[in-house]
Every structure is written in structure tokens, then in C-alpha cells.
User: What shape does this take?
Amino acid sequence: MAKQRHFIEKLRDLFLNEFFILGLIIINALIIFIDEFDLGYKTIGYLEASMTMLFIIEIWIKISHWGFRKYFSSNWNRLDFILIVVSLPSLLILFDNGAIMETNILLSLRILRVFKTFRLIRFMPEVDSFMKSIKRALQASYIIVLGFFILLFITALISCSLYKEIAPEYFRNPVVSIYSVFQLFSIEGWYEIPNLIAERSNEATAFFAKFYFSALLLGGGILGLSLVNSIFVDAMVSDNTDELEEDVKRLTQKIHSLEKKIDQLLKKSDDT
Assistant: This one.
């Protein structure tokens, strides 16, 4: 009984050790990486199922040790829990020798387990400051990002209406049109679309197409994306000045306090 209790304690300490879990995450990523080569080895499937079992044990031990409330208070733990739940179908290989693994599309969700690799970020220096910077940048730029996607949506619908008959490979429906306009905004092969339209239409339509897509490139690509990037980057690096601003504030307070003391001393000297 004592040996069993000692073993359970050792197992608990092992799964509460972040470096051990880090090792499991790296091994898990390597297994998924190898599996995508389609080598046909059933051993890979069993290894994937084994990794799922180990992560289930990790969740069980941490919930038992910390309790549900403390466990789910961590965003990392919530992410882990969701990823493991959606990868549970990979365990079917243990009972079906892989037959279901080849037919059930839900089992492809096991690939989402690779997102556990994001936990490596926790071991980066000053990761908390980095995450706060990203959060602040998202809060500062969400309005301009929303405006950009509204612009993308509107121009995609207009482009679809104008050119779905001339260039169906780019604008045959709104979904394809959104992708094509976004590609245009990213300044990736932007000239190919108007040139193709010019080849398939008359001179007036060709001239208008070149003018139209040049305006889209300027408004959405050069100005739009640049504005989004500048606001996001500015918000991310703004915390670099927080400490300096705090020092300036403290220095200003000390100067005011010193000025008051000097005024008091001068007033006393005048009275005497």
C-alpha cells in the first residue's frame, strides 16, 4: 500500500513538472509531423493514441491536485482541455486496429493536438509582457481592422458584380471575390487581374479596370494595410515607454515637492 501511494505521488509530481510536459509536447509534435508523411506504419497511430492518453492523465492529475476552479482559471489549461477533447477519437485505433481511423473524418481533428505546442511560449523570457502587448495591440486596432474587412467585403461584392462574367476564375462568386481582392490588397500579383480583364474586353473596359484596381491597390493595399500595421505595431511597442513615463511622473512630483519646500523656506526667511 505504501509503495502504491509512493508511486502515485511520483506520478503526480511527474505530470505537475512543466519540463516533463514540455518534453511530451515536443514528442507529440514530432509524432504528428512524421504521421503526415503517410508512411503507413500503424505504430504511429498507436503512438498518437498513447500521447492522447498521457495528456488525459495530465488533465486528470492537475484537476485532482488543484481542483476544477483553479485548473480552468488558466487560459493555457482551458486550451489544453479543448484540444484533448477534440482529439479523443484518435483512441479508436486501440479498439479497431485503425479501420475507423481511415473512414471517420472526425478523427482528423486529432491534428489539432499540435496546437499544444503553443505552450512552449510559456518558457519564453518576459512572455507575460509580450502577451500583454499583443492584447493591448488587438484592443487598440480592432476598430481599424473591422473597417478594413468591411472595405474588403464591399469591394469584393462590387468586383464580383462587375467582372464575374469576364474573369470568373477570380470573381465568379462573392467568396472567391473576397479572396481575390484580399490577394490584391496584399500586393501579390495585383497586376495580373486587370491585365487579364484587359485582354478579354474592349479598350474602355480595360482602361476602367486598370484604373479601378489601381485605386483598390492604393486604398486597400498601400494605405489600408499600412494603417493597420502601423496602429498594431505602435500599440505593441507602447509599453516600452511605460516605465519611462512613470519615472518622469515621479520626477515631476519630486520637483513640485521641492519647489514647495523652497517656497516655504523663502517665506520663512522673508518673515525673519
In short: Residues 127-163 form the longest helix (37 residues). The chain has a mean pLDDT of 77.
